[in-house]
Write a structure and sequence with these properties.
Number of helices: 3
Radius of gyration: 12 Å
Protein name: Carrier domain-containing protein
CATH architecture: Orthogonal Bundle
Organism: Actinocrispum wychmicini
CATH class: Mainly Alpha
Number of strands: 0
Number of domains: 1
Structural class: mainly alpha
Order of helices and strands: HHH
Largest sheet: none
Length: 81
């Protein structure tokens, strides 16, 4: 079974938090401290690697990184029909 791009992001988060079994699609990653200021840049790189596209730091919208659903919508399903 292949891993979807958004699942790669979820697995990265779970790898940083072995106490968790899963991360729900609407859990606020920042407020819950699953992603903190130190790991945010690494999250961006994980998304870039999974999406194959560079993220412009000058135009980052924090809302695009707050939940798995937001990440999926902003970086993986953009333009998908």
């Amino acid at each position: 079974m292949t891993t979807s791009s958004v699942d790669q992001v979820r697995e990265w988060i779970l790898g940083r938090h072995p106490e968790l079994d899963d991360v729900g699609p609407d859990v606020n990653l920042i407020e819950s401290r699953l992603v903190d200021s130190l790991s945010f840049i690494e999250l961006v790189y994980v998304i870039e690697g999974a999406s194959g596209a560079e993220i412009d730091f000058d135009t980052i919208d924090l809302a695009d990184f707050q939940t798995i659903s937001a990440i999926d919508k902003a970086f993986f399903t953009r333009g998908a029909a």
